[in-house]
Amino acid sequence: MKTTDVFGFCSRAVSGYPLRSGLMLLAMAIGVAAVVLLSTLGESTRHYVTTQFSSLGTHLLVILPGRSETIGGPPPMMGQTPRDLTIGDAVALSRSHAVRRVAPIVVGSAPVSTGNREREISILGSTADLLAVRNLTLANGRFIPEGDILRAEAVCVLGHTARKELFGNRSPLGRFVRIGERRFRVIGSLARKGQSLGVDISDVAIIPVASATALFNTDTLFRVLVEAKHRDAISRAKRDILAIVRDRHDGEDDITVITQDAMLATFDRILRTLTLTVAGIAAISLAVAGILIMNVMLIAISQRTEEIGLLKAIGATRRQVLLLFLVESTLLSLAGAMAGLLLSVAGLAVLQRFFPQFSLLVPWWSPMAATATAMFAGTLFGILPADRAARLDAVAALAEK
């Protein structure tokens, strides 16, 4: 039997029963589309989260007060409270040769008003280094001036949304706003930044760190952002930071230093595993589609007994009959996979239309893996029907008519 004869026989068998073939194609198409869509959503989420972390800065280290540790034994006679991070600690970190910039952070919330407009927004107290450390971009004006970190200048920089809500289309430069009970002169505004890990950078007011400690009546820093000189200096910067703070805190290791690379690697590993997991769950639907193909083909064989008997009567061997039905199930799986890929393209287009800000990235392995899995499932579950057809006796099959 020639190859063209095999494909011609299978094509006529598929087109001769459109309802049966259509149901099998639909089942396989839904499975393939589910694998591609879910793996795309997982990959896109991973890319979104890692991009958000990368936008925080480069070669970044985040210093938090306190340390996670396991304690035991009898309770101490005197209470022990970790020391807070102070502006003095942040200034001391600049002594490390591996550190390029240091940006202490004080965070609070206060009403910001001008004229008859008032808005409750987040207040960030920091230094001039925050602009470079956080990759912020000025829309106009200038950022917090460099100089004495302890000098509480009454100046502020507004985020994009805060400027628009308070001043509309007017230029805010040189005008005054009231933050809490204090007046600040607006010296600049930020370009649109958007959400960053849940914080709307566009809806903030940035003031000098000394002004923020006075405004919120605190000496404690929320955290300190440190930028290492280059990627290879991150480990050395972390060691220097721990040593400097230990010396200032009477030998106590009471801070936590998180490197940006460590955070990125952790999130990347978790989200990549999540992507593979949801793709694997979706692939189960391909196995279900394969079982459907097997059941439908078993029914089809009982309806095509005369056809199989005639094939054997004219000389078709058992191996050739087995091959015919295996090729038929494989072709159905391949056609279903192609339909599934088209369905996934349409689904991605609809999702992109409703969520234009969210970039959808199709993993390179997803279409190939879905197609290969579909063909494997179709072929595997086609073996039993094909074997049953091959075992039919020609005389008995013709006699059943």
Instruction: Report mean pLDDT, rounded to a whole number.
Output: 82
Which segments are poorly predicted (pLDDT under 50) over 5 or more consecutive residues? 73-80
Q: Tell me the Rg in angstroms.
A: 34 Å
**Main pleated sheet:** 6 strands, mixed, barrel
First and last CA, distance: 25 Å
Shape: elongated
Instruction: Give the SSE string.
Output: HHEHEEHEEHEEEEEHEHEHHHHHH
Give the spatial strand order of the biggest sheet: 2-3-10-5-7-6
Q: Can you count the helices?
A: 13
- Which class of secondary structure composition applies to the elements? alpha+beta
Helix percent reads 40-55%
Counted up, domains total 2
Strand content range: 15-25%
Total count of strands: 12
